[in-house]
Amino acid sequence: MKTLRASFGRTKLFQGNGPTKRRRLRPTAELLEDRLAPATGGFSALGAGAPTNSASLPIEAQYAVSESLGQDDPAYATAASGDGYAVSNATNQYTALLDASGFHLSTGSDSWSLTVQGVGYGGSLQALGAAQSTATANRVEYDYGGVSQWFVNGPLGLQQGFTLALRPAGGTSGAPLTVGLALGGELTATADAG
Fold it and tell me: Model pTM?
């Protein structure tokens, strides 16, 4: 099973065990431990108050901690809204509407959206079709059968990811596995150097 992950905040896409592409969608925020444990100065394997730097944690670990903390905090909870779900995040100053097509995020008077166009290989994409949705605490998942799209709201921001349980049709073409996404809104995504 392969997982692709995109996250609002520090955004990174993953395929399998290695990063494939990285994009930053807003300025880098303060360190994770500054958000989560300001009274102790951070967290580490050495105990509270020990010197730490969240940047030294792999990004996957940072978002796993964010997901876990957000799961127990009602401030990051999902709420049914029309055909989807609404989330808000005071730490990162946004609200978002999540549905089977993707998400629409607003921060102040600015907005940004990411819509799923399909999954396939190279430019040959297949639409995902109808989905069954489930929401628990700070997580929403849309199951399309062989592909699931999920969202997690937490202190580090909104994560969006895709889990492929089955290889999409057309995998013998030699083209790279592709999740087609369309950007919308007033904000612009840019790639980090490197």
Answer: 0.70
**Residue 34 near residue 42, CB atoms below 8 Å:** yes
Half-sphere exposure of 170 (CA within 13 A, CB side): 13
Q: What is the DSSP secondary structure assignment for residue 55, as one 8-state letter?
A: G
CB distance 179 to 124 below 8 Å: no
Residue 43 CB-density burial (10 A; 0-12 exposed, 13-18 middle, 19+ buried): middle
Q: Are 8 and 176 in contact (CB under 8 A)?
A: no
* Digit-coded pLDDT (tens) for 110-144: 998 999 999 999 888 999 989 999 999 999 999 99
Distances from the Cα of 183 to the Cα of 74, 103, 118, 128, angstroms: 29, 10, 14, 17
> Letter for the amino acid at 112?
W
DSSP string computed for 67-78: HHHHHT-GGG--
Rounded Cα distance between 5 and 28, Å, is 18
